[in-house]
Amino acid sequence: MIELRNIGFLKNAMEAISVFIPEGNFRFAEEGIYFKAIDPSQVLLVDYFIDKKLFDVYDVEPNFVGVDIVEFNKILQRAMPKDRLSIELTESEIKIKLESDLKRSFKLPLIDVNEEEAKTPKVEYDTKIIIGSTSLKEMLKDAILFGSSIVLKVKNNKFYVEAKGPSGTMETEATKVSKIESEKEVNAKFSLNFFQNIVRMVDPAEKITIGLKTDSPMKIIYKIGESKIELYLAHMIL
Length: 238
Known about the structure:
alpha+beta, Proliferating Cell Nuclear Antigen
């Protein structure tokens, strides 16, 4: 049995993940819950972990189960602010209860998902950037005016976002960055739509950590409540 009284972070996490991943495996381990999966287009890898100490009750046998993430997210989005969430696993289904003014029960059948866990890319990143989520989101809003892809650049310890399209070009420099650690210049291209959806659910007060290397996947890390999500976005050819 797993119980959680403050389910806001889990709602936000599943909403963010379900945009990309329709189904995947949850690994229930002694130290907490792991979720790692690649989206169907093979563009994005999601690596999410919830430490067991974030739960009010965490008493579950180690297990590896496939779940329909879209349907699971729909259930969580029905949670009211004062609801207590409980989750129980059987051999064939996951049982979900939401209790406060109403007592609601849901069941989802477990599904067969490829049992091999996705492997995170082994990249030695040249640059690490820590930036406020609000600043990054505004940079991406600028970029969407002109293109469907963006180029991220780091030069002379400065961080830039560029976009080009038939109607024009745009370059935005982040003049207020929490931290930049750069060993060399970086020039990398990515899908703007994917990047925007990745950061869409980040709290305005949170910071986003980005790992960059030319012609390599981008690494993005941020917190959802007290839990941590790590994502790897495949690069595009410049």
